[in-house]
Amino acid sequence: MKINRLTLEKCKECDELVKVPHQLHGHIALCPNCHDVLDKDNTWNLRRCAIIALAILILMPFAFTYPLMSIDLLGMPIHATVWGGAWKMATEGYPYTAFMVLFCSIIMPIAFVILVLTISVQRIIHQRPRYTLILLTKIQEWVMLDVYLVALGVAAFKIKDYASLSFSIQLSAFVIVTILTTLLFIKINPKTGWAYFYPEYRPLPSDHVGHPTLCPTCEYTFDENIVDLKGRRRCPRCESNLSVPDSIKLQRVWAALIAGVIMMIPANTLPISATGLAGAVSADTLFSGVLTFISLGSYSVAAIVFIASIAVPFSKVAVLFYLLLAIHYKWKHPIHLQMKLLHYVHFVGRWSMLDLFVLALMMSLLERGQILSFSVGDAAFFFGAAVFLTMIASSQLDSRMLWRIHYEHNNQASS
Q: Membrane spanning segments where (predicted)?
């Protein structure tokens, strides 16, 4: 009978050294300290992932250019498309806001499937995909087709009281692309790709004696000292710089967070949209837009918009400020609560883009100069910038800094 040997892995969340079976046989390996996923065996192989990615790429032109929904305005059908909303926003004088919408709804989804296909091609031509794998792990949070799908429903509720609304059969292409992309997220595992393309970098045996280091980029646990010409320690597998001090990491988080907070001031005070009906124009801020849905009796839509546009951005900023202060002052607070807060920030950050996607869909349907018109307000750019900056801030916050403070307090208590 073949023995399933144990290997050593460091947890990327808490830095705990854990013995993990080399072959999981359909199981998931969890860190016993923080319960983070160390490895899993329910992923697809590269060939199957490439087939799904190719199917998504074939459907994308239809999903992005075909009508998602249509309105009948004075007998004239007007269609909303993913591309049309961003293009209309750009041509109406909001190119930077349009780029944010385009970046998350078209550019990043296309880049994601192209990277998966590129890795498959590199496997065929026997080329190592170092930079491809690094990019694959970094762009996944920016692919927001699922958020766009929810925005489609919010936009439908927002416009149904003004014009006759219908969904197109071509919407199925976008729904299929969204489902397949989400499935690909779940089933692809970059860590497996690193192990496949770089087999010489073997995991440490369970009886290894030393002080292993974890590379957070490729999740490789090693006990080698690789230094470049500038004296910076590098990962032997992906060559990432491992000598960035915690002070520099915190400066990056503070800079992005403070910039995001500054952007939130005009985002919440200036009008984010303006709707015109029979010559009467009404401008809405983020909060007044929620009140409009409530006055129309659309309480569920009002709740979705309030959570995504107001509650989530402010709570995300509050949580990040708390975690940064906890690191700075080394507060002795429950570590598992802090981890739950950090996971919350990572999960909800992208959903704040919902409002910009709704604006793009509205721009695609309603043009200026019509009896029923719609235009984007100045707050849209600041809101999108705040979402981007807070997402960057949360991605730069290293959870291991919080765990080191936790370990330090435990050592002081035991001594």
A: 49-69, 96-121, 142-159, 165-186, 253-281, 301-329, 341-365, 371-394
